[in-house]
Automatic annotation (TrEMBL):
Binds 1 zinc ion. Its cofactor is Zn(2+). Its EC number is 3.1.-.-. Keywords: Cytoplasm, Endonuclease, Hydrolase, Metal-binding, Nuclease, Ribosome biogenesis, rRNA processing, Zinc. It is found in: Cytoplasm. GO terms for biological process: rRNA processing. GO terms for molecular function: metalloendopeptidase activity; RNA endonuclease activity; zinc ion binding. It is an enzyme of class 3 (hydrolase). Belongs to the endoribonuclease YbeY family. Zn(2+) binds at H102, H106, H112. GO terms for cellular component: cytoplasm. This is Endoribonuclease YbeY.
Amino acid sequence: MADRRWRAALPRLDRLVPRCVEATWPWLDRDRLPAILLTTDRAVQSLNAAFRDRNKPTNVLTFEEMDGFGDGDIAMAYETVRREAQAAGRRFGDHAAHLLVHGALHLAGYDHHRPDEARQMEMTESRILARLGIPNPWRLGGGKRG
C-alpha cells in the first residue's frame, strides 16, 4: 500500500513499479518479486532505527529475503525522495524509478561501499534506466546514493 502522496505525485504508479521491477528481473536471480512499500519519512526512519540502528529517514531501504519470512523488501520514503528529486532538478517519477531499480539491485547483491562497487552499480542502474526511457542519473555528477 502506498502513502496517498505517492499516488498523487505519480498517477501511473501502478505501471511504474512493475516496469522497474521487471526491468531489473534479470539481475534479481529469484523466483518471487520483492514487496515494495511506498511510505513516509517517519515510517522509513522507524524501520531504519529498528533494523539498521540509524534513527533517521533515508530514500530507500532494502531487506534481504529471510528463510521462512519474506522474499526481499524495498521501502521508500516520500519526503526524502521528493526533496532529492527537487534538489537534483529531476522529475519525481524518474528519481523514484531510479531508487526502485537501486533497491532491487541491492537485493541482487549489488552495493556501493567501495568505489569499484559503486561504479558497477551505477553502470547497471544506467543500463536498466535507459531501457525504461529514463535519463542517466549519474551524468553531470547529479547522482545520490541511497
